[in-house]
Design a protein that fits this description.
The protein is an all-alpha fold. 75% of the residues lie in helices and 0% in strands. Helix 3 runs parallel beside helix 5. The longest helix is centred in the N-terminal third of the chain and has 30 residues. The chain starts with a helix and ends with a helix.
């Protein structure tokens, strides 16, 4: 079932980071497209009011998308690399939830802030959660840019 795309990308005169960037941007575009449809639907169907500050919530949503797409592109490449060891395909699925817990926790708290005026989190206290998301994104994107060539080339 090997279509030769991976071999063609390996022999192409492009750095492996460009391949990761393409995977990252396509995942980010897909997440944004789904959220453009689902976020208004959730607000309408669950009868939520947008009474809280929207800027931290939208910033958190964007930062969470960046981290999720970056982690997904790296773990997806790890899963897709052909290897003879058993269980390598299941490893990214097992690792993804513990690695994404800080991202999911911060994003959910920021969305809570944006959807409720009576949230237990006032607007100035959203800065630590935004900082956590930004640090997570920087760490994951940096790690992906360093690790992806080794995963992609099977070194």
């Amino acid at each position: 079932q090997n279509s030769g795309v991976r071999l063609a990308l390996l022999t192409a005169p492009i750095p492996p980071q460009a391949v990761w960037l393409g995977k990252f941007l396509s995942g980010l575009a897909l997440l944004a497209l789904v959220q453009v449809v689902l976020c208004p639907a959730v607000v309408l169907l669950l009868r939520q009011s947008l009474a809280g500050p929207l800027l931290p919530a939208l910033s958190g949503l964007l930062l969470a998308d960046l981290g999720l797409a970056a982690m997904g592109a790296l773990l997806g490449a790890f899963c897709a690399a052909p290897d003879k060891r058993a269980g390598r395909g299941a490893l990214p699925a097992i690792l993804s939830l513990p690695l994404l817990i800080p991202l999911l926790l911060a994003a959910s708290r920021l969305c809570q802030l944006g959807l409720s005026a009576a949230a237990s989190l006032p607007a100035p206290e959203s800065a630590p959660w935004l900082g956590l998301l930004a640090a997570f994104d920087a760490l994951v994107i940096g790690a992906a840019l360093v690790l992806f060539p080794f995963v992609f080339r099977e070194e």
